[in-house]
Specification:
Elements: E1 4-5, E2 10-13, E3 19-21, E4 35-43, E5 52-58, E6 66-72, E7 79-85, E8 93-95, E9 103-112, E10 117-122, E11 125-131, E12 148-150, E13 162-171, H1 177-187
Antiparallel strand pairs: 1-2, 2-13, 3-12, 4-9, 4-13, 5-6, 5-12, 6-7, 7-8, 9-10, 10-11
Amino acid sequence: IGATWGGTGRVFAGGDDYIALPTAAFQNLASTDDFTILAWFYVDGTISGTSRCIYGRVGNSSQNKPQISFVHSVSDGKLYTTVRQTADTTTNDAVSTAALTTGWHCAVMSHTAVGNVVTLDLDGALQDTDSTNLLTFVGTDFYEGNVGMLGATGAAADLPFTGTIGEIIEWKRVLSLAERQKARLGTIWRYR
């Protein structure tokens, strides 16, 4: 809703701009699964007001309500990746080492089920690895309606993104460092 085509991706102006992706567009992902998600996005300058969600996947509120997301934080300008249940008292976040700058970025988040390890690469460089003992969730916890959001998180279009989202790719396995680099380099021509 509201996101327009900008040649290299969908342009989001904040507010109520978002794209809701139906359940059928996703693989079921559980906390016991390995997976990798790649996102190409363009940041339109300094963030203000509220954090901005590039990619959000929030599950059924009557179940475990898991969350998988990429969020540009208003507090420090960094990129946060999250894999958690909303009932968790701590989050499993991998965080970029510096604030995002204006321009195109490629973020790759990997989740290794054994040890609940989340790894973040940004623009080809490893940023952070975090492992937190999280509550479990299953893939069917994501069944509720439009579970995937580009440019926002949740059905109410919370944390609206300002910028352009080029593409999101999911793998239901952990990509090696070489594979993550290859995936980035194989798509970089679209954004440089």
